[in-house]
Each structure stands twice: as C-alpha cells, then as structure tokens.
Design goal:
- With 306 residues, this protein is an alpha/beta fold.
- The chain is 54% helix and 9% strand.
- It contains 16 helices and six strands.
- The protein has helices at residues 6-9, 13-23, 48-62, 76-85, 109-120, 122-133, 139-152, 155-165, 171-174, 194-203, 221-230, 236-243, 246-256, 261-268, 272-286, 291-300; strands at 67-72, 90-96, 181-186, 208-212, 214-215, 218-219.
C-alpha cells in the first residue's frame, strides 16, 4: 500500500513478474489505497486508522482465513498496525523497505530539492525521483515508474499524501505484532534506508531481517524465493524442473533460445510431432500455459543461453 495504480503496474516487467510469481503459489489480492490509483480519489483522510480500515475491508471480503500480509514501503505502516491490532487475521507479515515512522521525510537536502521540483515541474519531478530510487541506471524502467506515479496521483494529491505520512507513526504497534515477520531491505533502492528496516526487525518480536535485491523496482527471484520459504512454501518450479526428462530439458532450453519447432526437430534429429509431444509434457509439468510462459520459466530456472 503506497501511491500505486494496479493497472499501470502491470506494464512494468519487474512488477508483472513479481505478481505472476506470487500468483503461482498464492491467491494474490492487490488494491490501491484510498486517494490513489483506481480507488476513490480526492480523499483527504489518510490517517493510519483509515488505511487500516481499508485493509480490514479487503481482507474480510476476500478470505475468511488469516492471510499473508505484504507491506511495501509506506504501505508497511498500516500493515504493521493491522497485524498488531488484528493478530487473528494475519498468518505472516512481510515488510519491504519499510519503516515505523519518518516525520523528517523530505528534509534531507537531496529530497528537499526534489520536493521543491514537485511544486514547480510535476512531470520532471516524477522522472527524477524514480531515477533516483533506481540508482540512475535504468532509464526505461524509471520512465515506466514515473508514468505509474502520474497515473497513481496528481500533484495536489501527492502533497496531501506527503503531509499525511509525516504524521504516521506505528512505533507503539511494533512490539504487539504476533505474526512471524520478515523484514526485507531492497539494497538497490537508493531512497530506502537499511537502518530503518533493521530498526523494524529489532523492535518486532522474533522478526527476521534480510537484505535483498530488486528487479526493475520489484523483488527479484531470490527475494521471492526467500518470501516463499519464510511462509513455508517450497519452490514448486524447482520441483517441476526435476521432473523433466533430459530430452524435455533440451527442448525447453532450445525454446528459451528462440528456436521454433522445425529448428528443434532438426537440431535434435527428431520429428516435429515428437517436438510437439515434448512441449505438451513440458507445459503440463511446469504449469505453463504456452510457449511464452515456458520461455519465461526456462530463463527463470537457468535454462537457455539468453
């Protein structure tokens, strides 16, 4: 729960991969908090208590069972509050580059300059702050995140959100969290504070801290595997990979390299019908719905030379 736009997020490769990876193991529920994205806009009541009610409403409507709750950046604060006040509803709490309070947000010289820019040149600000967060290395990813930010909020809404979050403080809730908690710090996000993430882990009972990497601004495969392991899930993709025969692995590797069925048949000295049969088995064993998903699966698991 941060300034977000769930439809626009789907256009960012790293975020889409993150959601697809989670959806293979979870019933994934995402929503834009009030005043942001596709949720009701123009909201000025952005306190922790009202955002907590949003979580409660969505959680109650989607599942009668305790859920794994994921709090991303500023979204970690209402997630912490919800986990502390409704322990019976949260099985695990995952926090990504989050914190308990940040009343001085925007006071550092670089951030002050960026927020001054937001007041005078909104498009340039969105480009600059996303570039800063991604370390000024991936211009295309930063451009996509900047477009998402402009979809998620307006200049006026952004400053209202900024003012509201300076009053957010869930420090008193930290010691009340009963759910197993994993605090993850994205070391590639230049605007995220490892110190604040470590403070969270130290204050939440029995919390685990882990430094992670991101892929295009979203948790990468190692972070996803760590999350799944934390909640007790094995990597079903690895299990499926072990079930492939040596020949099926060869076929999948060639598919990942971009070879068509005819080329695969020629290179492996088999018929096209045999290639098709191998692909049918591969799709079934890996849970992929076709060639595109199979290519993504192969590359995620180290097959192919791409």
């Amino acid at each position: 729960m941060q300034l977000s736009h769930v439809r626009s997020e789907w256009g960012i490769d790293g975020v889409r991969h993150w959601y697809e990876a989670l959806a293979r193991s979870f019933s994934l529920v995402r929503f834009d908090h009030r005043g942001s994205g596709l949720s009701s806009r123009g909201e000025t009541d952005l306190t922790i208590d009202t955002l907590l009610l949003d979580i409660e409403t969505v959680a109650t409507a989607t599942s009668p069972k305790p859920s794994v709750l994921f709090g991303w950046a500023t979204g970690g604060l209402p997630a912490i509050a919800y986990a502390a006040r409704h322990p019976e509803r949260v099985s695990h709490l995952i926090l990504w580059s989050s914190f308990a309070r940040d009343e001085t947000h925007g006071q550092a010289p670089r951030m002050r300059s960026l927020f001054e820019m937001a007041a005078t040149d909104w498009p340039l600000f969105t480009e600059s702050i996303t570039q800063a967060a991604l370390g000024w290395q991936d211009a295309e990813q930063a451009r996509q995140w900047a477009a998402l930010l402009r979809d998620a909020t307006t200049q006026t809404e952004f400053f209202e959100f900024l003012q509201a979050r300076r009053d957010w403080d869930v420090t008193d809730d930290l010691e009340k969290v009963e759910a197993p908690t994993l605090v993850m710090h994205d070391q590639r996000n230049a605007l995220a504070s490892e110190e604040r993430s470590r403070e969270l882990a130290a204050r939440i009972p029995h919390a685990r801290f882990q430094v992670c990497d991101s892929n295009g601004g979203a948790p990468d495969d190692e972070a996803i595997a760590a999350l799944k392991s934390f909640v007790g899930l094995t990597d079903t993709g690895v299990t499926a990979l072990a079930e492939l025969t040596p020949r099926e692995r060869e076929v999948l590797s060639l598919v990942a390299d971009g070879a068509g069925n005819t080329e695969i048949a020629e290179r492996l000295f088999i018929s096209i019908n045999t290639v098709t049969r191998h692909l049918t088995h591969i799709y079934a064993k890996t849970g992929t719905g076709g060639r595109t998903q199979a290519v993504r699966y192969a590359l995620e698991h180290g097959l192919g030379s791409s």
